[in-house]
Amino acid sequence: xxxxxxxxxxxxxxxxxxxxxxxxxxxxxxxxxxxxxxxxxxxxxxxxxxxxxxxxxxxxxxxxxxxxxxxxxxxxxxxxxxxxxxxxxxxxxxxxxxxxxxxxxxxxxxxxxxxxxxxxxxxxxxxxxxxxxxxxxxxxxxxxxxxxxxxxxxxxxxxxxxxxxxxxxxxxxxxxxxxxxxxxxxxxxxxxxxxxxxxxxxxxxxxxxxxxxxxxxxxxxxxxxxxxxxxxxxxxxxxxxxxxxxxxxxxxxxxxxxxxxxxxxxxxxxxxxxxxxxxxxxxxxxxxxxxxxxxxxxxxxxxxxxxxxxxxxxxxxxxxxxxxxxxxxxxxxxxxxxxxxxxxxxxxxxxxxxxxxxxxxxxxxxxxxxxxxxxxxxxxxxxxxxxxxxxxxxxxxxxxxxxxxxxxxxxxxxxxxxxxxxxxxxxxxxxxxxxxxxxxxxxxxxxxxxxxxxxxxxxxxxxxxxxxxxxxxxxxxxxxxxxxxxxxxxxxxxxxxxxxxxxxxxxxxxxxxxxxxxxxxxxxxxxxxxxxxxxxxxxxxxxxxxxxxxxxxxxxxxxxxxxxxxxxxxxxxxxxxxxxxxxxxxxxxxxxxxxxxxxxxxxxxxxxxxxxxxxxxxxxxxxxxxxxxxxxx
RNA sequence: AGCCCUGUAGUUCAACGGAUAGAAUAAGCGUUUCCUAAACGCUCGAUCCAGGUUCGAUUCCUGGCAGGGCUACCA
Length: 633
Known about the structure:
The chain has 633 residues and is α/β, with parallel strands linked by helices. 56% of the residues lie in helices and 11% in strands. The chain is built from 25 helices and 14 strands.
């Protein structure tokens, strides 16, 4: 309708305004709730053209639209806005169309290009936490929204299964794990601990011992004992000590931190870990076996967490397999003049002309850095999937700079698809007590949090739910749907790029702008429709249309546009806000009218059809948010 | 120090440059002989500061102020 009127105005521009006009001048918007109208045309842009008051301009255009568009009942000019009122017949036809279209709002599969969405990408030495939940829910939802908008989507993640951090866990496990009566070290099997938690425990264990050893080392140095280290270290330490003289407290603090760093780097335990990494890179059989074993524990642990989260992946990339990629590209890039080599052999890119710094892409010893790997992996992915058109990286905003550089490098290397790479940068999740810090033990574990919200959902549902007819299995499933639904909705309703506050209390709330609020509406409509039986729309055009109904139809017709906007903006929050608004309107309507007991059959069927359309919109919206829509609750 | 992001009711979140800045929550009041009250209605309450661009600025620009992040031959 909007496009129809726009085309009409453009076509008759000369008669209306005495000249051709720019399409940009025709600005439509949704009419405010508190004024009459279904679509609003902003009149201001035309005032200059017509040399008259906004009121006169509005009336002139309004008269024109009334005459030329049969579905327009009337036009009202208010404060420079032309509010167009559509006929009831128009809205009834719209409803009929929404009702007849099975997945109204979703674009045909494959109607848009293929996109790869990367998310999750955890380290294998730390269990998943609250931040990962936002990442996973966000990445999964964006992937689903892109699908709904017609894209082919490949969901992926990079598993950081390589590097010094893995060796730390491995070493700590070898050194500190107690032996049981059978002489075995701790395993998930003999402890019953989740694999990722067990490995995480030893990572922490490593850090503890590292700190302890570093502290001892510093005390030794302070007493002049340098027996365990080289002369360079001795000199460095002495220099730091002299530097502290006559400095203020803050400066001393800074120097102390450097001393601590120096000590850490000289601990035997870290040296051992580094040796282990060297062995790993040389494929030492013993180290490799240990690595494989411990990683498999982690994967099992992650797998169960992902299952509970309800997320999945089409293709996995392992850092151990990709970390060597990219070196060839860098070497080729030197020849092409994209990169340059410093005298020490290290390779850099100069981005100062683009307002950025110089950035290292290959170390002087020829080994790869993170950036090298990312370059290689990106190129590799486009080889793996020839139909691939673009990529979305779901990674926290602390890496904004990294991705800016990465995309720029890819572009300079001559890859046209670099334009279609997008860093879905999301803000940190804060707790009411402040930032999550692993050292202070304030990290909210993903598994624990999910269990907690499910438990809370169970408690609340038993108190007020309608679950008499459900089997024990169905009940368990329902508690999970509600608990996780609430959690996901809570994390997704906020604009991804914004830092957000996570209040554990509120995340499991059931009232207000929450997941269960939406789910409840779905359950309520579901039982209503179950009782209603067949819906008959044959007499629909004779039905009356009240204000509430019209508002809902209006919202329903905005669903396709909403999905598209959410997809182009990579924002599940747009879907969440939309569906909340729709449900609020529906609840208001539900409270205001009778449905099943309505005597006029045309009206009754209209309301049933409306309810069905709303139910579907809820179900589809929740689906792309990764939230289940219960039939009863 | 430089660069990037964010500042909206007490609190958590909304608002393609558009009309009287919406919700939720908290506080108070009200709605069940009727389809699920996990609902609905009413009351109270906000754009960090100073300039600028515009018919019109929470939104864009400049300068402050506040909070966070990034500035590793770590990953």
